[in-house]
Prior knowledge:
The chain contains 14 helices and twelve strands. By secondary structure, the protein is α/β, with parallel strands linked by helices. A six-stranded mixed beta sheet has the order 1-4-3-2-5-6. Strands 9-8-7-10-12-11 form a six-stranded mixed beta sheet, sandwiched between helices.
Amino acid sequence: MFWGPALHSAVLSVTSLCSSPQSEGLVRRSEVPAGVTSRAGKIVPQCWTRGNLLRAAIDVGTNSVLALVAELDEQAGRRQLRVRWEEEVLTRLGEGVAETGFLAPQAVRRTAEAVASLAGHCRKLGAEDIVIAATSAARDAGNFEVFRQAVYERTGLPVRVLSGQEEAYAAFRGARAGHPEVDGSCLVIDVGGGSTELVYGHDEPRSWTSLNIGSVRLKEQWLRHDPFTAEEWTQLCHRIQQALLSALWEMPRPVEVAIGVGGTVTTLAMLEAGLPRYEAQQIHGMPLAARSIEAWASKLAQMTYKERTGLPGVAPLRGDVLPVGAQILAETLRAFGLQSLLVSTFGIRHGLLLE
């Protein structure tokens, strides 16, 4: 069976959480050793010189929670981040939201506990200001106040819910901060668990759209079998293409450079580079060809969940949705006529600190 580009040419030219022994627990991309290595590959000092002002951001997404501690530096009129520490924890806050419209109690509990743990570590590192922001699952869930209260009880910190525009702009600012060498028009593609943000601009965002085609959302809505059937995969691809049609009309041209952010992009980069584990310094700025993304999407879609999570670097709470995220990326590049993208390990959390 082959599910390749031919499936999609007619439309565009241009279940619930998998049950597994690991699915209930938190899945960390990296543990925090005594001397912490950030996602940018820098060692965090154990003590700080007076005058270092550290800020922290915690991005609570549909599938993951990402924390960042960084210094904000002004150079030649441009704000830059000096990354000190980062960590990702996969918690699947948006489990079942696409079907029920509400956050599940177990998802609230495990995500709030992850946020509290990350916030505590940010404080230990000396962060004087911590912002917690939630995205698609927060916007969609009718009972999000339950999560907001759970986080406040554990941390004493408020949770800010980002609008689609705020999420898009934060992703753009973060991506551009991570790629200051990029010159010309840029399309930032942020494939999340609940939504996909597309943002066009040069140094600043100029146009944006937020599409309800996140990897967790679409997996729960369209994919019920393991492995996926050809019929349900075809239906999912058509759904992605239909959503992108509106984006094609809204986004300016030309696009000279595409930058991809988020867990789907970085995991695909790890697979393409043959890395056994996440190494930010190895994949940040790496070009990822559209044909490679298409090939990975097709290959991953035909594998079982167990086979996917057996691949190096593919965590249990990423394995069920990775093919969907890869297909969203592939369809987006095809829709805009782009041959490749730059991988970025920067994202919303970096953009929040640059506000």
